[in-house]
Amino acid sequence: MSDKPTPLSTSALAKALAKSTKQMFAELESLSWIKRDKDSWVLTPKGEFEGGRYRESHKFGRYIIWPSDTVRHNALVSADAHLLSSADIGKAFSLSRRRAELILQEIGWMTPGRKGWLLTALGEAVGGSQRENSATGVPYVMWPDGLVDNAVLIDRVVGLEKGGDDVARFLCCDGHQVCCEAERHIDNWLYLSGLLHAYGRPLPCDEKLTADFYLPQHQLYIEYWGKENSQGTVSAKMKKKEQFISMGVNLIELNDEDVLNLDETLPRMLLKYNIET
């Protein structure tokens, strides 16, 4: 019996490297190991130097095979060394992986599949690479490390501080301009979670008071009482809180600690009003 290692087809090579077959062909093409000739992939002299050969099959026709040790080739193994996962991008901006995924989706760089995430044409244009878990087949996307400096992404994550009337405005993903960083985090969380909401909505009362956030489909108000909210005095805030109580409306109250853990605190608070995210 021969102990000679079994060569790998390109699809088998992709599986061994936990990549999609499409991505594997793209990488081999970028390395100039293969090239497209009409409707087929053909080896280049460089690909032949790296050990690529052709195999004939009655079922599949002619296809390319690679030496088994190609899975350890530096050009392929290190291809992901400088790529970022959604979790890495989230960490760069102090966001959870889930928040980062929703922002990347909102921009239009990836879209949810039946399972996992699929790269879009816009995502590919900024350097995204489609991957596939070799064990589960679940697709995911990897990103170039320079993406954290992308102006579009920074605008979505960090927001723009707007001047005017001597009042700072922070731009949210949905276009709302809010008064502080904490309110921007809350607004973005609601928007990326698919919850229709208003900002600065007047309360239905005789007093000229506005709610921080209002979810019309659920008749639910959300107020941020943290230190960062510099609007009005403590007495003004208490006046608004008393108005909420007198109206008997549904109300969620957030403080600075809640804002730091929105992914944990807000879903739990919303669930009390039968709102699932």
Automatic annotation (TrEMBL):
<protein>
    <recommendedName>
        <fullName>Glycerol kinase</fullName>
    </recommendedName>
</protein>
